[in-house]
Amino acid sequence: MPNEDRIERALRASLAPSLQPGHPPKLAAAMQHAVFPGGARIRPQLTLAVARACGEDDAQLTDGVAAAIELLHCASLVHDDLPCFDAAETRRGRPSVHRAFGERLAVLAGDALIVAAFEVLGRTTRRHLSRLPVLLRTVSQGVGMPLGIVAGQAWECEPQLSLADYQQAKTGALFAAATMAGAQAAGADGEPWRALGERLGQTYQVADDIRDVMLDAQVLGKPGGQDVARDRPSSARALGLEGAMAEFQRLVQATLLSVPVCPGASQLRQIIRHEADRLVPQRLTAQVAALAALA
Amino acid sequence: MPNEDRIERALRASLAPSLQPGHPPKLAAAMQHAVFPGGARIRPQLTLAVARACGEDDAQLTDGVAAAIELLHCASLVHDDLPCFDAAETRRGRPSVHRAFGERLAVLAGDALIVAAFEVLGRTTRRHLSRLPVLLRTVSQGVGMPLGIVAGQAWECEPQLSLADYQQAKTGALFAAATMAGAQAAGADGEPWRALGERLGQTYQVADDIRDVMLDAQVLGKPGGQDVARDRPSSARALGLEGAMAEFQRLVQATLLSVPVCPGASQLRQIIRHEADRLVPQRLTAQVAALAALA
């Protein structure tokens, strides 16, 4: 089964309990809206790719871990879009959850997705129970305090912050959880896979900062120009657009070099190159160069 | 060690990771504000009492489970107090988290407390790993979809609801998780303890509805009269004050009868009677009777 299908199937299964008899219909619909249709699903793709590279032996567990990681990503988007944060009207080209369902259901949908992520971890570790504690730790650290996604969003509320720490918490931490948990789902040590996830997270964050400046809402599927509008730290603001582009290219190379030696290394590097091209296509690089020449 | 001290110590330990180097200080402070000083800690008290009644053999695990249940309760209060829900200015006699730290940090503190609850479950099951999956399920079902706390809050967003289903989800589900997880932490079957938790949750909810009408903000530690102000379903509104009081007395008796036969049964019944007196003191019962005589 292609990875895309595995991920969608795992996500549907992870939300199946929320549709069982007795559920409040609007919250169930808000959760579905937050998760389907998805974006690039890059984090669960990574989990699957790393698990395979580590000799995957329990597909049900890998799928559960991949779904948990993506549910937590979706939860963070739903809360990040709330009026008190980004007040984003759109996400993935559709109304954001708070626009479609109201603020209360958006808060609750995020909460319910976090709970569903941990529930699916508990449900899919039956055959390899000994892997559950380390998976819980890895996933918790990717999203919780002191260094996960919530910490990253909380740095936006502090008067002073380090751009690197902020980006590591807001993006790097869940990418690291995605790679490490992929290894752990296959019974391997997660630690050698941390650097790959962190580099990839940095790469992704810099790309996101460039795209926020360069692309319009139709391509982004969400409002553009938000970093300046919300006075939010950004690589493009700190380094300038040309500097951010150079940083992006440097990070792509660093990411490729952090793939541990393993049978699946070349497939992983292929995924990384493909994702880099998707995030910052050639024409965008050319546009930035042209803008720099004009300046 | 008295149960009160055990619970406070377990809660401090469960939040220790959030204070490790690199944490954003305001979010860490908001989490502490949400958890300390606490209310009656009735849910973790129940967990401890049931674990003891079931022959507790792993105090570290019981403490972790009790802390997880209380963290999830605190998280639900923080999100319930948000401007888009109850817009409560006070909680436990102090500013609510969103009043003290702002709305963004209140959303994030709730999220971080949910994650911390699952993290502590994973961390404290080392000696009895086989109990972890069922504990994860019980705790998830107490707070998640389709029948846990988030579902209860979501019913407030539906045009039609059943008062019983709403109260069961909003309050009963976490009380049931508290009793069942107490048994499971001791290696016992949780199912025989479900009815006790559910009855106690119903009792507590009816008491809360009565208190919302009868007590002022100073005694409640939070604004009173909210059910009418927010057009929220309530036993006092559905049954009248006298009817709600009769229902409360009926539920206390039903709760006492649902304590399973076990060595700790009499201690458990004592806790229940004590809690019932704390929630609806004699003078409140007398006041309601006096009001009814006037009508």
UniProtKB/TrEMBL annotation, chains A, B:
The Swiss-Prot or TrEMBL record lists the needed cofactor(s) as: Mg(2+)
Q: GO biological process annotations for this chain's record?
A: isoprenoid biosynthetic process
Extract the CDD domains matched here.
Answer: Trans_IPPS_HT (cd00685)
- Alphabetized UniProt keyword annotations: Isoprene biosynthesis, Magnesium, Metal-binding, Transferase
GO MF terms here are: metal ion binding; prenyltransferase activity
Report the family membership.
Belongs to the FPP/GGPP synthase family.
Record protein name field: Geranylgeranyl pyrophosphate synthase
Task: Give the organism's phylogenetic lineage.
Answer: Bacteria, Pseudomonadati, Pseudomonadota, Betaproteobacteria, Burkholderiales
